[in-house]
Specification:
The complex is a heterodimer of chains A (about 325) and B (about 120). Chain A is an alpha/beta fold. Chain A folds into 2 domains: about 5-115 and about 240-315, FAD/NAD(P)-binding domain (3-Layer(bba) Sandwich); about 125-235, FAD/NAD(P)-binding domain. Chain A contains 7 helices and 17 strands. In chain A, helix 1 links the parallel strand 1 and strand 2 (about 30-35). In chain A, helix 1 runs parallel beside helix 7. Chain A is elongated and about 70 Å long. Chain B has one domain (about 10-115): Glutaredoxin (3-Layer(aba) Sandwich), CATH 3.40.30.10. The longest helix of chain B has 13 residues, at about 40-50. Chain B is globular, with a radius of gyration of 13 Å. Classes of the chains: A alpha/beta (about 325), B alpha/beta (about 120). The interface of A and B includes residues 134 and 136 of A.
Amino acid sequence: MESKHYNSIIIGAGPAGLTAGIYLSRARATTLILDSGVAGGQMILSHEIANYPGFESISGYELSSRMKKQAKNFGCDIMSGISIVEIDFESSIKSLRLSNGKKFTADTIILATGGRSRNLGVAGEDIFKGRGISYCATCDGDFFTGKEIAVVGGGNTALEEAVSLTKYATKVTLIHMLDSFQGFQHEQDEALKNPKIEIRLNSRITAFNGKDGLESVNVENLVTHEQYELNLDGVFVFIGYEANTDFLKGRCIKLNERNEIVVDSQMQTNVSGVFAAGDANAKRYRQITLATADGTIAALNAMDYINKLKTNALQVV
Amino acid sequence: MVLPTNLEHIASAAELNETIKNHPNVMVCCGRMGPMCIPVYGVMEELQEEYTHIAFRDMAFDSPEAAAIRNLPECRSFMGLPFTVYFKDGKVAAATSSIQSRDQITTILDREFGQSN
């Protein structure tokens, strides 16, 4: 099958990828953005963004719609809902193939694949999603009014949401794998002093049970290895985020121990002509403003790389 | 009461009935503007260009009129937004609760309504 060539292919249509797309297409570089989901990335999930300069308050949905439109208006091609099955980033002409058979080549690649909420990966999790298992307290909390639930996790989000869910639930069991919480001290204090919250440290859920809806979970104490069943109506999972880099594992791109992409200050990966931007990168802070900054740096360096390629080509001719 | 999405909205139970009467294939996503719902609206927006034989609609979950979706027997055990219901020839063909991926949605669309042209 014939492939189409672009100056740059950006993988990921979150704020980092869309910003890179805006810069590159405005600089007249032919640019394609690919995304496995819909444009917007994690940004689309925010009810309200109040710290993005220029907007006192804007929804993630609206901001991502504007970024996508801006990139398209500059001539950027965007393909959503795609799945990449084959990559070659080490050759001078980079190439990738999608599950639908389409093949694309490019002078440069920008990896802006972002992150996703971590699932427990426990038996029954998919079956009871939306039937007792939730990943959003503000969305689904009121379904559990007068019911007993558990919250899984030990960071700030888990602690905050456990307290918030006591508005609805009669009892919240906070289950965490480690022997202490990782959230801020004030978040821990709020949870510990709440009479509706029961703490179970060194514990993990090993199975979800029920018929039409969730009815109980199996819990293992990781110190004593005691296994027991806990009857409840719902479980909220807040165990952090992970980088969307599964398709890069074992390939040429260097990842750290958390499978995040390792870049230098210019967003250059260890492979020439391949840049990375946004939440998939190894970094301390993950914010929309930082993702757009990463996307800008990656795009400007990709443009520089493309220009150098053109110059070299002219010299060869 | 309608949602600020780029989809066509259903504002009342009467409109819902009219839609499923006039279209053999209907997908209705009933939710709020929350993190579990918005990705589903996003997928629907993109799919409606491809799946032209299906009517894609949304409905505000908090509208009293949305009881027409909330109280469906198929949604009885649902405890996660959005409630997404697929109607084939006026009857419920499938229903899901909580966030769904593009692949999960297209699997249902292809199975219940046939693949896009």
